[in-house]
Amino acid sequence: HPPKIVIGEREKGSRAGDVLAELYGSIDAPLARVPVRVSEMVKYADNCFHALKVCFANEIGNLCKAVGVPDSHQVMEVFCLDTQLNLSPYYLKPGFAFGGSCLPKDLRAVVRMSRETGVECPVLSAAIPSNQLQIERAVDLIRETGKRKVGVLGMSFKAETDDLRESPIIQVVSTLIGKGYELCIYDQNISWPELFGSNLGFLEHELPYAEKLKAESVDELLAISRAASEGRPVDAEAMRAALSPIRRDVARRAVLERDSAVASAAGWSLFLGAEALAAIAVSAAAAAALTARWSRLRDGILRMRRGGAAEPFFSGTRDEFGAVEEELDGLVAALGDRERMRSELRALQGWGEASAFLAHQARTPLAALSLSASAARAAIEAAPANPGSMDQAKEALSRAESEAARLASLFSRVRSLSGFKDPELVDLDPADAFEEAIATLGARGRGAGPRNASVGRSGSGPRPRFDRAYLVEAFVNLLSNSLEACEERGLPFSARLVLESGPLSYTVEYTDSVTGLGPETAARVGTPRYTTKPDGSGLGVWLVGRVAALHGGRLEIGMTDRGGLRFSMIFPLEDGSRG
Q: What is the pLDDT of residues 397-456, one digit of tens each?
């Protein structure tokens, strides 16, 4: 049987409706006879709500998996046990926005959790913006009436309570006051002197003058509102008590007797004078704010011209000046990228010049080596026929050794200029070097520690020899980058090292707890001079690659499933590798 039967009628009590009702009369289900347009919208509402429930359950399940909740089905099973709020008509009556101490707080926490874990939850993320639109719609409905005096009946977010925390009506009241409306408030459940704690704190922050707008009874509220809406004289004392906290800084408006033309003229003069003063004050404040923003813009440009670090120009205000600030931020970013490219090109040019120098200097000894080797081979081949040719061979080999020593000296000079020495290979477990790097950073006062790091192993094959100093320095660079990235993003720090021994290669893989990076970062990180830090050198990851290369290996950089970086140093296994 269906859960309900809906009959759409063009006319109430129509013959067609009677026939259909009789046709379905034997089915045990609620029957509703409604206008055709209502029945059509009921069908849309049914299917949209079903789709919404599927998306809601899926987003909760995805989030459970991301944060380590083992059984999302159990979560939803317990959720469905609540037939008073969760699976009920409750909350399904169109009306005003939600508020209170639980719904907004928990919804914001879940949305933040989804962003931190990289799980997209568009349905949950849209709830707060949708709720805000409902509050703005309420303000628009009031504005459409054309009335400037408004009575508010009830302030708490929940009936029969005095809980004002994140009550949406407070935002409506605050908005109307900011637009010049005159308000009077009555709530029988609120005793203003007895408010305390976060309840009082929220009210004082959002509506500090709320108590001055209160009416002592619903009759007083209706009397003031009705008199104002009908154009009848309003009780002067009641109006003054309601309006004094809002108008005292602009003008004290007097409610005058309507038969006193002189008093009326004086009142209007006072009002217009106060409005003019208010306009002048607002203009002066706007000019001061604009001057401050210009000064900030000028100081930022001068600081950059002096070689200082660039700071964002955009102040957060969406206006014409804000558009200029955003354009400047985009220009600075583009110039920064161009400058980094120039720096990389200069570095590459330097390496090119060094390579040209090396090729030029090595050409002569290499040619001499080739000639000496050829002369030695020719002398050895002629030895049976010419006994003296062995002396010639020895002389040629002596010249070859001399040229080889000269070539080795040249390469040693170039390597000393680069700052790299030949690695001193020892039997070393990379996990020991990892622990030494953690201890080094700990001694420097950084946040790395054994409890933040872990080591995993895979495979039982041999491992190559390593230079302890080089490997420790590589891990120090990787850990330092991770710590700085976690501090910048407000993330907890952790690092993991996985050592994998295969039949042909040995892999040292490093990952950390950083998330949310784009694939373009993985493409550029590790290139000389590339850095995301204002004072960075751009050499940390590049040096890790050089350490791998000095051991005959290579560095590969990829992305993790959570949007972090994976650094893999891969070393080939050769004869003589040790387990």
A: 777 777 677 666 666 555 544 555 678 899 999 999 999 988 887 766 666 666 788 999
For the record, the structure tokens of 222 come out as 């209706």
Distance CA(251)–CA(277), nearest Å, equals 9
Q: What is the 8-class DSSP label of residue 25? A: T
Question: Is residue 229 a contact partner of residue 197, using CB atoms and an 8 Å limit?
Answer: no
pLDDT in tens, 292-312: 877 877 777 777 776 666 778
Distances (CA, A) of 253 to 215, 228, 430, 482: 19, 15, 81, 63
450 and 562 Cβ atoms separated by less than 8 Å: no
pLDDT tens for each residue of 478-514: 988 888 888 888 888 889 999 999 888 999 999 998 8
| Active-site pick, 102, 121, 184, 486 | 102
| Residue 102 is a catalytic residue | yes
- Type of residue numbered 136: E
Distances (CA, A) of 247 to 209, 254, 271, 275: 11, 11, 10, 10
The span from the CA of 560 to the CA of 436, in Å, is 25
Q: 578 by DSSP, 3-state: which?
A: strand
Residue 33, number of CB atoms within 10 A of its CB? 18
- The pLDDT of residue 252 is 35
Contact assessment for residue 475 and residue 434, using Cβ atoms and an 8 Å cutoff: yes
Contact 455, 496 (CB under 8 A): yes
Residue 24: phi and psi, rounded to 5, are -100, 10
Q: What CA–CA distances, in Å, run from 537 to 309, 474, 483? A: 14, 15, 16
Does an H or E element contain 568, and which?
A: strand 565-572
pLDDT tens profile 314-372: 877 777 777 777 877 777 777 766 666 666 556 555 555 555 555 555 655 666 666 66
**What is the spatial distance between Cα 538 and Cα 116, in angstroms, rounded to a whole number?**
27
Say what the pLDDT of residue 501 is: 92
Phi then psi for 534, rounded to 5 degrees?
-55, -35
Paired with 571 in beta bridges are 506
First to last CA, the chain: 72
Which residues 6+ apart lie within 8 Å of 455 measured at CB? 431, 434, 496, 497, 498, 499
User: Which stretches of 393-515 are assigned E, i.e. beta strand?
Assistant: 453-458, 495-501, 505-512
